[in-house]
Amino acid sequence: MDTLVIKGGKRLKGTVEIGGAKNAALPIMAAALLAPGEHRIGNVPHLRDISTMGRLLANLGAGFHLESNTALLDCSKVKNYAAPYELVSTMRASVLVLGPLLARLGKAKVSLPGGCAIGARPINLHLMGFEKMGASITLESGYIFVKAKKLRGAQINFDIPTVTGTENIMMAAALAEGKTVIENAAREPEVVDLADALKSMGARIIGAGESVIEIDGVSRLRPLRHEVIPDRIETGTFMAAAGITGGEVTIKRCNLQHLDSVINKLKDTGMKIRPLKTGVKVTGPKRPASVNAKTMPYPGFPTDMQAQLMAMMCVAEGTSVISESIFENRFMHVAELRRMGADIIIEGGMATVRGVRKLKGAPLMATDLRASASLIVAALAAEGESTIHRIYHLDRGYERIEEKLRKLGADVRRGKE
Ligand code: EPZ
User: How buried is residue 65: exposed, middle or buried, by Cβ count under 10 Å (0-12/13-18/19+)?
Assistant: First the structure.
């Protein structure tokens, strides 16, 4: 298995380009199932999760290939309605085919996704929404089987603003009979991007990005044409890398409007963040100031940036309190950061981080996508060499990260176990 070997201490300098958002591309690829014909999705990143979704769609009968960063999907012959365990178990986002398959074929069978490193991550709210729209749901040997002769529009209220739950219901409702109203909908930019892609297919959606979304079902949709938004978490990750190394980095092809809460937090650490016509120029302080943060649904501070901010706070001046309110077990990076000399105490969903002067490089273990990113951020500033193992977690969500970091002057190379 691959490792990343990083020799810390270099201040990052130069320019980096951000790729398309993984968490927008995945639901938009699934949305292609809603209509026969040739779909074109631009600015799709080359990531393990994208190829997994491509394999899953091909398994369902779609034609899929990636030409440079454009995904071409032909969904004329989608007949198979089952998503197998071996694919779903490697990528939870596979549940995103439930809504489109139900709407297109009237049935769907998806292996119930197991938990993952960061939490149990049930899909009860997705299923509640489908039931309200007239679907029947059975659980057979670990598979969820959902079917409905014809989906009807419904009033659906989510206890929690679930991102993929909102996306699943929006896709199912696009072809349902009548109007669906989603209350307490997720407001993430990736939800808005999916709504824009669905509108390019002829779907009738208003309110995406707000807490109430209305979808008027139509009888058929046309192939989608859409360009995926930039990845706000990749952008935030490079900001944190510049911040912890006291570097000066120009980040291109990013969308700052999606990062208000992250930018405000990083400014509080002493970072300079100067918008440019083509992106943003970020400058790290000599030593970050400590800040407190609590992860919240969008537009709050994103849980997907919690680990990267924590890495920065490990060497901050002062003590930070970082609370994780979205997932029950998203502190897997803490044990690894402690091995580098970080001073972190966890009580329930709250981590108290006392800044130390310097972290020390060490052999480290990646456990999930964003934890891996936080270990990179920490290793870039640590004294000496770090070797990060199991970086297949990283390859799920970051395209060519070691090349991008090397171009910024980091001493990083991909090694073998
Ligand atoms: C999406 O996951 C993202 N994944 C996650 O990014 C992200 O961390 C998360 O949203 C929160 O922003 C994709 O978009 C593919 P949720 P999702 O449903 O939709 C609970 C990454 O790093 N919940 O918004 O699975 C759930 O347990 C990944 O790219 C229920 O209880 O997250 C969690 O505590 C990691 N029942 C909370 O809601 C449900 O039916 C938020 O989950 C659904 C969710």
Answer: exposed
